[in-house]
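I hope you will forgive my troubling you with a question about protein structure. I set the record out below, with my sincere thanks for your time.
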Amino acid sequence: MPAFLLASGLSFVFSFILRTKHRSTKMDVITSKEGAVIVFFSWLFVIFLSALPYVFAKTLSLSRAIFEATSGWTTTGLTVISDVESIPKTILFWRSFTQFLGGAGFAIIVMGAIIGPTGLGLYQAEGRVDNIVPNIRYSARIIMLVYMAYAGVGTIALKIAGMNFFDALNHSLTALATGGFSTKNNSIGFFNNVGIEIVTMILMWLGATGFGIHYAFWQKNWQALKKNPEPKQMAFFTVISATIISIAGFGKIFSNVHESVRHSLFQVVSALTGTGFSTTDLRSWLGFPPGIFVLSILMLLGGCMDSTSGGIKQYRITVLLKALVLSVKKFTLPRNAVIQVEIWKGNNKRYLDDNLIREAFLVSSLYVISFIIGTVILILYGYRISEAVFEFASALAGVGLSIGITNYSMPDGVLWTLISGMFLGRLEFLVIIYAIGKILRDISSLQRQKAAM
């Protein structure tokens, strides 16, 4: 408790200084690029401040605490704490709570709810393409209501399935946030309970489903739900991947059909939704290339747009696939033929256009390029290709599954490489590009103004 009091005291002082430095009564609309700057620095500051309780409680050093805080807020779930069962419950809950807030985006939940329509730039900077409803304040409140309701129901369901209340609360928060922090060293595998695994998979799936889709469901807009491609796409990847791993792993890492289906399905859902819970020790999968390869691909694909999940996102994959099909169709049609391809997300319908394709291609390309660079860095530190590929894919996509690279004693270069991957992946590159570009332009503008004086 003293660690949190000290950390909160420093946070209060820091916020008071910022408040006194900028006292403006005028509430201008925040543009997307201004929102990117605010989100960028907000995430940096909140990660640093959230790392302080780990340091003050003497649980972690500062660099390792920053890693843990980054993993929490980006809902990754990789951890440098070797024995989570030995640390205080206050620290365990703090880890889960940071993931719960980070899942929906604290900038949306806090700032969007407070400043209302001026928060549109923040909403867009957080990677949300469309409002759930036209009013940003109402959108933020809907997100909070749905998020908290699911967390409460999830806690009760896990308690009924066999967890104690503390474990149920923590796992409900981190499953819904697709975060993956656990109160047990062996994650969900500690409980060895099929009921708990089923409830957890449902929570992970709910977390990886876009908020717009949830809103359409509760509005009983069945037509919109039917036309949303992301859940169907996720289901397709889940069935295909679980089948491949089950068949390939039977007799090798799974002793019987029941274990093969059970563990394959759970790990696939955990990887695709970007959660990071596990029911088996994945270090034993290093001699099982099909499993490592499939899980690595699933982690990079990720869940739905506007969800707590990471990765490239199913919506962008849909855009790229539809763009490919459209390009093929145009070869067989007259030059002046006009084709409109609709894409649904929640209650909103858009038509495939150059801007949509460009954004999907740009973000996907940046994911691939960053993935290659991060993997190469880990290989240069002496890790095998399969290990480097899996671990950095997990960090970049905000998943949290690990095959052993992430630990307290890993080299600082590996530590900061994984931190960078988690941060880049969570803010989806464009926010950082917009923020840095805006800062550089503002600095250049100030320099020109000074030169003119």
